Amino acid sequence: MGLEFRVLGPLRARYDGREVDLGRPQQRAVLAALLLSPGRLVPTDRLVEGLWGEDDVRWPKDPTGQIGTHVHRLRRALGEPGLLVAAAGGYRLGVPREAVDVFQYEDTVAEAVALRHQDPARARELLARALGAWAGPRALDGVPGPLAERVRERLAAGRLAALKVRYDVDLALGRHAEALGPLGVLAADHPQDEEVHRLHLLALHRCGRTAQALAEYEALRERLDRDLGLEPAAAVAELAERIRRGEAVVAVRALPRPCQLPPDIPDLVGRAGLVRVAERALRAAGASPVVGLSGPSGSGASALAVHVAHAVQDSFPDGQLYAGGGETGAVLAGFLRALGERP
Fold first, then answer.
1. How far apart are CA 302 and CA 310, in angstroms?
2. Is 233 or 303 the better-scoring residue by pLDDT?
3. pLDDT per position as a tens digit, 239-268
4. CA-CA distance, 11 to 139, in Å (whole number)?
5. Cβ count within 10 A of residue 88
6. Of 40, 208, 242, 310, which cross-links 247 as Cys (Cβ 3.0–4.6 Å)?
7. What sign does the CA torsion over 109, 114, 116, 120 have?
């Protein structure tokens, strides 16, 4: 069994089924940063920034020394010699990716999203398994520092996206009665999320609560206008109109929006300028830009590309595809499946 780590909830570690005492919050923050890059070198300055921020006014007198102290205590807590080592200005935690729950979770969600149209029942099963891995509402709960907060925000957004796919699949399978209650809670928690409300409107209508569905749509429309100066998206407005006309809404499916990006490495030391240049190019209005990043093996170009992709994800709401290598035909076939098409 060996060591197993949980990030989806309070940070926890178990060794052969036995709970490991991970120590004080700052010590846990150092472990969290190492766990998010399993088997890879994490520079000490990234650990410092992840714990205390970029502004050195907030740093202790000897931040590098404090990181070293936390690492020493973590070595003793984890117990395995050679597991946590110092190397080239940083530290490396030699645990396999599959020993950290967040990577299993994200892999399972990605598999489910790819299957949602071809095999919705299997996708539903995978999503239930993935979402069941959460041991609380917040990832890294109780872990301090800006790195932990950024990871919490990213995983919360990913969890919401996974829930929307889950309930979309439920509706495709005719499980509207089961989805109705959870969708109502989700809609209350996310009053401006139009996709959540689209799913809730459809579930209400299918459960015979058409008047409530139309009332919710009007409330959403007024809220978006008041708070954001926006009209509801076309997919939501069209669904409401079909419900109002009494049409049989058998399936109103959003187009698939694949999100294939690997987990972000949020702290890339010395790359802020490159990130800003790439972001400006990719966000250029009225353009369809292509940004190329190149470098020798081990230079971090791939990690930089993934980081930039996460940074501009909101500018590409129709989805993000990722080619991680392999034969050209296999990569293109994977893209087509993710977009709901047969290769």
1. 13
2. 233
3. 999 999 987 565 445 456 677 777 676 666
4. 8
5. 9
6. 242
7. negative
For 248, the token pair is: 């049989």
- What is the residue type of 167? Y
The Cα 275–Cα 277 span in angstroms is: 6
Q: What is the pTM of this model?
A: 0.73
The CATH classification of domain 3-97, taken from the options 1.10.1040.10, 1.10.10.10, 3.40.50.1820, 3.30.70.100: 1.10.10.10
Strand partners of residue 42 = 91
Tokens 């299993």 found at: 104
Q: How many residues does the chain have?
A: 343
Cα–Cα distance for residue pair 210/224, rounded to 1 Å: 21
CATH architecture of the domain 101-244 equals Alpha Horseshoe (1.25)
Residue with tokens 């940004």: 291
